[in-house]
Amino acid sequence: MKATRQTKQRQAVLEVLRGTRTHPDAAWIFQEVRRALPNISLGTVYRALDTLAQDGVIATIERAGERTRYDYKHADHHHVVCRGCHAIFDVDLGASAALRPHDALLPAGFRVTDVVLEFHGLCADCQAREETARSA
C-alpha cells in the first residue's frame, strides 16, 4: 500500500464506505458524500475511489454488465451475490486453509496476491418472490 496524501474528499468517501456494508456504486457514494461536502463533484468522487482502490484501502467489485461497486476492506472476507436482485453480502470465511491455493497447483514462480471468491444464488427475499410467482 502506498501512502497517498489524504484529502478531505478522500476522507469523506472513505467514511461513507466504512459506514455501509451494501457495496454501493459511485453514484450512491456521491449522493452520500454530498451531505458532508455539498460542492463535491462526481468526478472528484471517482478520482477518490480510484486512488483509494490503488492504495489498497478499498476493493472494487466489477461484474459484467453492471456498475462497479466498492467495498471497504474492513477484514478478509468474500461475497455472496444474489442472482435475482444483485445484492452483495459479505461472508467471513476466516483464513481457511482449504480456500488457499496449493503451491503445487500453480504455475512455477507464480505468487498469489489476492484470492477472490464469490458464492452465487438467491437471497431469502428473491426466493420468497420466486415461490409467490410459482404459486400464483
Mean pLDDT figure: 87
Overall body shape: flat
CATH-wise, what's the superfamily of the largest domain? Answer: Winged helix-like DNA-binding domain superfamily/Winged helix DNA-binding domain
CATH architecture annotation name of the largest domain:
Orthogonal Bundle
Could you state the order of secondary-structure elements as H and E?
A: HHHEEEEEH
Q: Assign the CATH topology of the largest domain.
A: Arc Repressor Mutant, subunit A
* Number of separate structural domains: 2
Q: Which CATH class of the largest domain is shown?
A: Mainly Alpha
Separation, N- and C-terminal Cα atoms: 54 Å
Strand-residue fraction? 15-25%
- The helicity comes to 25-40%
Q: How large, in whole angstroms, is the Cα Rg? A: 18 Å
Please state the structural category: alpha+beta
| DSSP, total strands | 5
Strand order of the main beta sheet, please? 4-3-5
Contiguous low-pLDDT stretches (5 residues minimum) are none
**For the report, how would you describe the main beta sheet?**
3 strands, mixed
Q: Helix count?
A: 4
